[in-house]
TrEMBL record:
Core subunit of the mitochondrial membrane respiratory chain NADH dehydrogenase (Complex I) which catalyzes electron transfer from NADH through the respiratory chain, using ubiquinone as an electron acceptor. Essential for the catalytic activity and assembly of complex I. It catalyses: a ubiquinone + NADH + 5 H(+)(in) = a ubiquinol + NAD(+) + 4 H(+)(out). Keywords: Electron transport, Membrane, Mitochondrion, NAD, Respiratory chain, Translocase, Transmembrane, Transmembrane helix, Transport, Ubiquinone. The keyword Repeat does not apply. This is NADH-ubiquinone oxidoreductase chain 4. It holds the Pfam family Proton_antipo_M. It comes from Pinus strobus. Belongs to the complex I subunit 4 family. It is found in: Mitochondrion membrane. GO terms for molecular function: NADH dehydrogenase (ubiquinone) activity; NADH dehydrogenase activity; ubiquinone binding. Its EC number is 7.1.1.2.
Amino acid sequence: NIQGIGGSIPPMLSHGPVPPAPSPCVGFLYDRHKTRPAKYYGGSVSTMPNPPTIFFSSTLANMSLPGTSSSIGEFPILVGAFQINSLVATLAALGMILGAAYSPWLYNRVVLGNLKPNFPHKFSDPNGREVPIFLPFLVGVARMGVHPKVFPDRMHTSVGNLVQHGKFHR
């Protein structure tokens, strides 16, 4: 239906900046420590305040916090899905809830807590080469979240035509 398809397009666009946003954080942590397990990075906020701030903003977007690009289409998707199949919509809602619960858990493991004694001397903020990598991700998330009406307005005719002329079976 038009609600489900129309609601699915903003999250697809949001998958451009949101999932890759934490990747540069992981990359520069790996450059400094040559390891990826989250258990080694607890307490990093005390020695490098900027990456946790960037990681936190991407965590909020991953949780679909209102005002970020991820939150735009979730409700219309669920409304459209409930109209077609309530079991699938319930499972989708459960997946959204579990994903939103996982993000702060991961943030807590990597950023907060006690400083790990293995790496305290290697924690440092991103350098001049690393900082500009984050900007396109953060701007994309904020732009889509602050001005979400732009996307449904431009997509409405196309989505309506797709639903009208498409062959969707129940």
